[in-house]
Design brief:
Residues 1-10, 211-215 and 427-434 have low confidence and may be disordered. Helix content is 78%, strand content 0%. The radius of gyration is 21 Å and the shape is globular. The chain has 434 residues and is mostly helical.
Length: 434
């Protein structure tokens, strides 16, 4: 079976190169979110933004609704026309959106820029995550997925350190940070042009991957709307969606919260968040990448959920001081490194057949980001009425995510995609139209 060749034992340099180039979508995604969060206070001062407009930016930015729309569309196109078609060209669209932020002269230009950037990063996520899973060697799928998550954390670290260095420049410093993301997107377009299409997707398109009792996998959108696929989508959307309500709120608004509630300087707020992402990278590298392919994934997920619930509850119980924020950051960063997002990327690739993989990922990712967008609109208003209330709500989201994840977690460690797809009992294909 040709798909098995791409999933052989071990990892060579080309495997890692493909993973890094695909995973840089995570760098771009998280970098744009955190750059926006760090610039939020500057925009508020420059353009006299109301709490309602701040919520509007959060709701329609790359952290939420626009990324959801991009994932819906991009995920489906990935399965119909290939992963490379999407991940090669959407970075140019991302750069175009960034130009609006670089040269923004008013609040509406900021909103438009964030919306365009969100469409691009949303479309890229299912393409890159599918490609990573389909090209990773057997027994190293979790490790390769972890590399993409490390890049997700690296983006914010670079962005936040740039903000620290450029703080004296004020809004000009923010424009420079956005320019670096635009330049990287253009460079990534050229680097990705040398990558090859996923061989597993090509084989599936040519009906070269037999499934149990069938000649090929389904490719139509309505084939995804059966209980066989609705059940895993509901599980993954619930687990990741509850966690992402916390993560999205924290990622976009934490510097804003530190400044307005914790009375910290812009430099201190950025430094605390940068520290959190560095710890997260260590957690992914030392825990998730080393253990996800070898140990009980359900147990690993539960440990991460407990650590995060404890960390978030501290802010709900105690006053938001700098020392408490640091303890909170340490627990949350360590816990989330081997938690919901890392497992969502891994499981969302493993639980669906090749010709529906990106469609399912895009649909789930889109729902999660759009729900977050709706919730984000109210975060500044909730913060203004008292941070303790918001902290308890976020703690509740983490509890629900942990319960859903623990009860529904699959045991896929060590299995190849061929083995997983052989157990899916995929129905015969009846057409390739949407």
């Amino acid at each position: 079976m040709e798909g098995a060749i791409a999933e052989g034992i071990g990892s060579d340099r080309n495997d890692w190169k493909n993973t890094i180039l695909a995973g840089l979508a995570n760098y771009i995604d998280a970098g744009s979110i955190v750059a926006g969060s760090a610039a939020l206070a500057l925009w508020m001062q420059a353009y006299d933004l109301s709490p309602g407009f701040v919520g509007l930016i959060g709701a329609f930015g790359p952290n939420a609704i626009s990324a959801g729309i991009g994932a819906f569309v991009g995920g489906r196109l990935c399965d119909l026309f290939g992963r490379k078609t999407i991940y090669q060209y959407d970075m140019l669209f991302y750069a175009f959106g960034m130009l609006w932020l670089i040269f923004a002269m008013n609040a509406w230009m900021v909103l438009i820029g964030f919306f365009l950037v969100g469409l691009a990063v949303g479309a890229d996520i299912p393409a890159s995550w599918s490609l990573i899973a389909e090209t990773a060697p057997k027994g190293a799928r979790g490790k390769h997925s972890g590399v993409a998550q490390v890049l997700w954390y690296l983006g914010p670290v670079v962005v936040l350190l740039m903000f620290l260095a450029l703080e004296p420049l004020g809004l000009l410093g923010a424009r420079i940070v956005f320019a670096h993301l635009a330049i990287l997107a253009v460079a990534l377009t050229f680097l990705r042009s040398r990558m090859k299409e996923s061989q597993r997707w090509l084989d599936a398109q040519a009906d070269k991957i037999p499934s149990a009792g069938a000649a090929a996998q389904p490719a139509r959108l309505r084939d995804l709307m059966t209980m066989q696929w609705i059940a895993p989508m509901a599980f993954l959307t619930g687990m990741y969606g509850m966690w992402n309500l916390w993560a999205g709120t924290n990622g976009f608004f934490f510097p804003y919260i530190l400044r307005t509630v914790g009375n910290q300087s812009q430099a201190m707020a950025v430094a605390v968040q940068s520290f959190s992402f560095l710890l997260g990278m260590l957690s992914i590298w030392l825990i998730f990448m080393r253990l996800a392919d070898r140990v009980n994934q359900r147990t690993l997920f539960l440990v991460s959920a407990i650590v995060q619930v404890v960390g978030m509850s501290l802010l709900a119980i105690f006053p938001l001081t700098l020392s408490m924020a640091l303890v909170h950051v340490m627990l949350m960063s360590i816990g989330q490194g081997f938690g919901a997002q890392s497992f969502f990327q891994l499981w969302s690739a493993e639980m669906f057949p090749t010709l529906l993989r990106s469609t399912a990922q895009g649909l789930m990712f889109g729902i999660v980001r759009i729900v977050l967008g709706i919730f984000s609109f109210f975060v500044p208003l909730l913060t203004a009425t008292g941070f303790q209330t918001l902290a308890w709500i976020l703690t509740g989201f983490l509890v629900l995510s942990g319960l859903i994840g623990y009860l529904g977690a699959p045991r896929n460690e060590g299995k190849s995609l061929d083995e997983l797809e052989a157990d899916m009992d995929v129905a015969p294909i009846e057409g390739r139209t949407a």
